[in-house]
Amino acid sequence: MPTVIELDPSFRKNGVWDTHTALKTVNHAHYSAYDSDPSCDLMIIETGDGKFYIGESFDGDGRGHPKVFSETCENGVVELYDSLKEAQDIILLVLSELTGKSFNRNSALDSLLV
Length: 114
Hints:
Elements: E1 3-6, E2 12-13, E3 16-17, H1 19-22, E4 27-33, E5 40-46, E6 52-56, E7 77-80, H2 84-99, H3 105-112
Antiparallel strand pairs: 1-7, 2-3, 4-5, 5-6
């Protein structure tokens, strides 16, 4: 189960959330389904306290999916996962829902990682 937090409004400047500062991000990996129509590029982002969340690589790629954080969203609500595995399981589900393609965990993670 994710931990749901709401970012402090002071981290929102000119309509964009500064998650790098707010969550002290330390790393990220892109998971991309460019061979689908519509294509999709999402990220798993690691925070300074060892949690993970799913974010858009480009504004709009998450198509408003509730599990994908957009830096231009209004509310600043972020779902944080305790492990990379948990975040990977969720990103595969989200990519499937957004692209209409099925992704098998054993084969998909390497092929989606950019």
